[in-house]
Specification:
The chain is about 35% helix and about 35% strand. The protein has about 90 residues and is α+β, with helices and mostly antiparallel strands. The protein has one domain. Strands 1-2-3 form a three-stranded antiparallel sheet, with no helix packed on it.
Length: about 90
């Protein structure tokens, strides 16, 4: 009885294609520089979301921070997640 290799070949093509696309993207991405001022600003953000629209400017500013500690069941290991962002949206009429 022959081995059913068609499903394996399809999966290999699918995952190989994803791996190849990831490799191409990784080659194109430039290494980012680390700005210590931006790192300090992100560390100083309070947890939660905040939005502000100054009256003297045509822009809206948003900040957000999500910080949680997750404990893995069974192993006892912990993982801390700290996600923070600063955003600015500017729209001008021309």
């Amino acid at each position: 009885m022959p081995l059913p290799l068609a499903p394996l070949a399809g999966a290999a093509l699918k995952y190989g294609g994803v791996a190849f696309a990831a490799w191409l993207i990784a080659r194109r991405v430039q290494p980012a520089r680390i700005d210590q001022r931006a790192e300090d600003a992100l560390d100083d953000l309070p947890e939660g979301l905040a939005a502000r629209r100054p009256a003297d400017r045509e822009q809206a500013n948003m900040t957000g921070r999500y910080r949680r500690t997750i404990r893995l069941v069974g192993t006892g290991r912990a993982l801390e997640i700290d996600a923070a962002f600063l955003a600015r949206l500017r729209a001008r009429r021309l």
